[in-house]
Amino acid sequence: MAPYLSPREIAAIDAIVAQPNHPDLHEIATRFNTTYETIRYRRYQIQVRRALGWDPRKKPGRPLVITPEMEEAVMEHVLRYVDIYQEEIIDFLYNEFGIQPY
Asked: Which domain of life does the UniProt lineage start with (predicted)?
């Protein structure tokens, strides 16, 4: 198993591998004390991001509406009122935070 790489080392590896005339991948792996497979995977990820034009690791869709603070408030409200309906929870969110999570 390859050793853990810090974000600084990952950024350095990405910068080296992204260059068109980068050194041998085995040499890069030796320099950063990691495996050849790790360097090869980093290079592959850069190529995929270039080919697609976007980062496939980022999840599509709109950002979350419910913050952790709102979630905590809803949990406390549900614990207080056990027999609460879903519509009442939505009303609670609207009254407390001014949002309608539809």
From this structure: Eukaryota
